[in-house]
Fold this protein.
Amino acid sequence: MGFLQSAVTASLALSGSATALEPIVQKGTKFFTESGKQFFMKGVAYQQEAGGGPAGTKSTTTTYVDPLADAKVCQRDVPLLENLGINTIRTYAIDPEADHDACMALLDKAGIYVVADLGEPALSINRDDPAWNVELFDRYKAVIDNLSKYDNVIGFFSGNEVTNNASNTDASAYVKAATRDTKKYIADKQANGGRWMGVGYAANDDADIRVSMAQYFNCGNQEEAIDFWGYNIYSWCGKSSFTESGFDVQVEFFSNYSVPVFFAEYGCNEPGGAEGRLWDDTTAIYSDQMTGVFSGGLVYMFHQEENDYGLVQISGNTAKTLKNYDVLKTKLAAVSPSSTSINAYTPTNSPAACPAITENWKVAEALPPTPDSSLCSCMTKAASCVPASDLQAEEYGQIFGYICANDPAACAGIKHDTETGVYGPYGMCNPVDQLAHVLDSYYKNQNSASDACNFNGAAKLVQGSVASSCQSALSQAESSIAVAATATAGASTSGSGSGTTENAAAPASVRFSPLMTMGDMAISLYVLVAMGVGAGMVML
């Protein structure tokens, strides 16, 4: 902790205000303070260039600046947040290695809570290549560990608009698996003296999937379901109305939802011009028309950027409020949402039924496995055929493509089929461990022929061993693989789904092979993806 951060934290501690805010808890469809007063979010998205919002990016090369790690920046901005009249901010990416004491203390003193996304642009669930694996889980746990010590943290988003249309609904299975596992991680902390913090999802508003999305994350085993639902919606533009904007439809639909719902982003900036944003949607959100169902909302966004959604213009160390800030401040000051107390409220809504598989929804109720680095390690140490130590990651795709096309059963352990809900136990391992499993399975399916573990030097034979502590877990994994292999059988025309495949032991020339053309690779990878295996780690 730097000198400035230490001074700020010490000052707040001495003033007795460092723990001014009560923790927030959930009951049914509502949030409450720990003492029982209903809580409505009056918030704003607070992060520059983090990939959120209607003009945000999902690029894995996007960098981010942790908005809660610089005490000087927080000293500049927190008074503006407080003066605006908000009680919650949303961050899209924080550095779990950074010290947030000073900023979190300043926010606490200002009466401001935090909802934080768990991912970051380069390490989150990718809608185009979804996975839930050891690396991601480690990141998510690290964020929870970092922020859980602050009473003004309400909870976390396990994903933001990961599935954004009917073409990538499969990604939702991985986000819900992340929700399940992070909830369990928090619950274990709570059992050891921690407190409640929720895990939710922030969804975009796509007409083809909005109903299925909301149902899916709320349905089934509630230990796997969301604690709250965030809705990114920009349908109220200019001089609109409760009905013209479709807010009435949202209220009607979510009136039967079983967890709190709020706008995780809102605030259309069209039409633009000198008049600016009117913020009539803010007035509606905290009116009696909506407060029986919605728990407030978070305006997009604090910082003025090229997308012209900002409330404050930052230039160097100077922050200047804009007209949109001034109008929003007036609107927020005028709202007075009707509320109830926690003791007077009895939840009546039940969780949603899981959506059926349709043309626009390809996700079954069953979820991918929980990432388990120890199981991955046990499996790799037990393997007899493993990747060569000098094998580069960009070479993995050729081997995955060849093996999964010619011997589908060898890839059953990494299978992931969201539509049937069938998952191999090793789909959550990192790419090199997954490749070790596929190579070893292929080698054994070829009757341990020496040339089945070669790939022109890309693979090597080793003396595998199974520790006694690994036996039970590996045995359970083998049972799961048997189920996945049955579901895999017949998926490829290049061989059977079980046993050996004719001439399949001939890929010694796969590595750097001129015999495998780009067309061959395209066919192999097409089969691979069609089978639902390996898509999370194929790299060319």
